[in-house]
Amino acid sequence: MIEIAENYKRITENVEKARSDYAPGSKIRIMAVTKGVPHEKVNHAVSFGIDLIGENRAQEFLQKHPFYAKKCEIHFIGGLQNNKVKYIIDKVSVIQSADSLKLISEINRRAVNSGLIMNLLIEVNIGCEYSKNGVEAGRLPVLLAQADELENVKLRGLMAIPPINAEENIYASMRRLYEDARAKVKQPDEFDTLSMGMSGDYVTAIKHGANIIRIGSALFGSR
Ligand SMILES: *Cc1c(COP(=O)(O)O)cnc(C)c1O
User: Domains in the chain: how many in total?
Assistant: First the structure.
């Protein structure tokens, strides 16, 4: 477990360097992505400073959640089936993987039932990959406008998983989509999150405006 502390230190140093090079003055959050990681390790990471964790799989999350240390913010970042929304709605503060009106309507419905407002990032399939979730860039404006009409969800930004070894222009176009979207939503001040960058590309993502980076293997070791 000592490794996790060392990994975290290295990542924070790299992030700090990238921030001062490319985004001085901005705040960049490091999310620990916990898929396949036992709860003891997650709690260990939280004990030395991680304050944001990301969950991919509803089933796995529900099993581990009772054992998590309480003080941590949790976002859902994985593919989410409509029938799983009700299990996670009161356990996470942001759903980063909202990518269809059907899913967002279900999130809104469950949020109404639970008397809460759910924060959403819209996931964009920026590389147009068949295998990936996310809305196509061309459909993003319509989806944003539709989601913006729902009372119990709040649009907070965009999320993306650029293709492996993607050219930098993919990251740049993601930032452009984010800024265009912010100019159009009803509450632009609240639309403040670009979640992009993982273990292999977080420096590039920070260069292009990411303010949440999602780190799994570089922190916890390879899966
Ligand atoms: C697994 C995963 C990550 C972290 O990936 P690493 O390359 O291990 O850092 C980030 N985001 C999502 C959506 C993931 O599924």
Answer: 1
